[in-house]
Design goal:
The structure is a homodimer.
Chain A lengths: L24 H10 L1 E5 L4 E3 L7 E7 L1 E7 L5 E8 L3 E2 L2 H4 L7 E4 L3 E7 H10 L1 H27 L2 H16 L3 E3 L4 H7 L4 H13 L3 E4 L2 E4 L2 H9 L5
Antiparallel strand pairs in A: 1-8, 2-7, 3-6, 3-8, 4-5, 4-7, 9-11, 10-11
Chain B binds a DNA duplex through helix 7.
Keywords (chains A, B): DNA-binding, Transcription, Transcription regulation
Protein name (chains A, B): CRP/FNR family transcriptional regulator, anaerobic regulatory protein
GO molecular function, one term (chains A, B): DNA binding
DNA sequence: CGATACTTTGAAGTGTGTCAAACTCTGTGG
DNA sequence: CCACAGAGTTTGACACACTTCAAAGTATCG
């Protein structure tokens, strides 16, 4: 029996992975040859920050969190990747260890690419190199935004921005939170309790309505004002 | 009369720039041909976050801060670059606008590389592409660290880590702060007053001694414990 | 249906930001 | 070389956003 992903199994092919986009058929076959499948269970650790890396991953299905943990138990989620995204690529090109840890948020299928094999592919295929550069640049943009957000914005602003992001991703003002709220808090750089209280305040002011993991955006323009800091909660 | 930089004019050549490291003589000449020199005064704005980019820069001398500003006047310094570093490269490869702003911390000489010209060079020279990938990966590592630091560590921990970084860079336990303390605060994700108070507490506990912009590390192991969070201030 | 994971709420504590004022360097021009 | 202006720094009193700790409540899944 085939494994069933929580996220309905959209068709996956290597040529849909943006890292491999536009590559000639022949190169994609070569990539298929060197890719090593790996199945990880929900909650399973994939690698830890500081660990020596032997290669990187592409997500075939499921979702993976990239995070850093402090000794006091708090953790900061750096990013959440799902189908078609790569992760763990930094030590393929710079240094030897992973800068952050990775853990499966649900049962996920991964493809592992060995450092050496991949580097030799990239040498022969300039387009693959350019794809990689564009992806890394995009991640820099994201991370610069994250640094600024964490340091310059307060929790209500960050949460508002996050809800608007979800709305634009899901193309609807009726949102379904795909993650437990504790994980969302960790992504926003805060804790569960604070997130809960902030959501309640937003609901009290009728910016949103909330029933469990379902959130309705009632007043989008106010949410936008909150996100940009023009307005206080 | 030649312009005099505050940082004594170390010799500069394109082949010392890590982006261009290991390139054949011929390519370096081509780079020299397309590079446009630009002189910026202390405090001068080079570009703003959100602005359309036409290319990126390499620092020939001086120093440049990359930062994001909030409407309330607070700013977060993302990085400070000096001789041999590139900056503003993200929109060359992804998107069209700068993710952050850039301003000269002192009179600086820059080299500007036009987006289109550079992209055509990189297509012909795989080594240049690999250098770029390695540099971008290194920046991702830095930024991941910064996100984690801002969210997981308190000001004393961040400051301790910063002082240790300075000590290792300057290869001495007698430090000189190259920046005004307000700028350092902005880099650490806090404000001048808090930085001042934290430094005083460190001095009171005889972890450091401070005279103006000169700081002596008195107890390095305690500073390391502070940085790792094993110890409180 | 029961166990476990997740979420909410309250009360109290703490680190950091804000505002305002005084103080101290630093470099420049007289 | 001194005086001065402006930038940079320190300090205090206060406010407040956020975390911590603890407990109860609610979903969720096998």
């Amino acid at each position: 029996m085939e494994y069933q992903e929580t996220t309905a199994g959209q068709p996956f092919s290597l040529s849909n992975v943006s890292l491999f986009h536009g590559l000639p058929e022949e190169q994609v076959r070569e990539l298929t040859r060197i890719a090593v499948p790996r199945l990880v269970e929900k909650g399973e650790e994939i690698f830890q920050a500081g660990e020596e890396a032997r290669g990187f991953y592409v997500v075939k299905s499921g979702s993976i969190k990239i995070y850093r943990a402090a000794m006091n138990g708090k953790e900061q989620i750096i990013h959440i990747w799902s189908q078609g995204d790569m992760f763990g690529e930094v030590p393929v090109f710079q240094g030897t260890t992973f800068p952050a840890s990775a853990r499966a948020l649900q049962r996920s299928k991964l493809l592992f690419f060995q450092r050496k094999a991949f580097r030799s592919l990239i040498r022969d295929e300039p387009d693959l190199g350019m794809n990689m550069i564009a992806l890394l640049a995009g991640r820099l943009r994201l991370l610069v935004g994250q640094v600024a957000t964490l340091s310059l914005k307060e929790v209500p602003q960050r949460l508002a921005a996050y809800l608007l992001l979800l709305a634009s991703t899901q193309e609807s003002d009726e949102l379904r939170l795909e993650l437990p709220k504790g994980q969302i808090a960790s992504y926003l750089g805060t804790i569960q309790e604070t997130l809960s209280r902030t959501l309640r305040r937003m609901a009290e002011q009728e910016v949103i309505a909330m029933r469990g993991r379902h959130i309705s955006i009632l007043d989008k323009s106010q949410l936008e004002n909150l996100a940009s800091g023009q307005q206080q909660l």
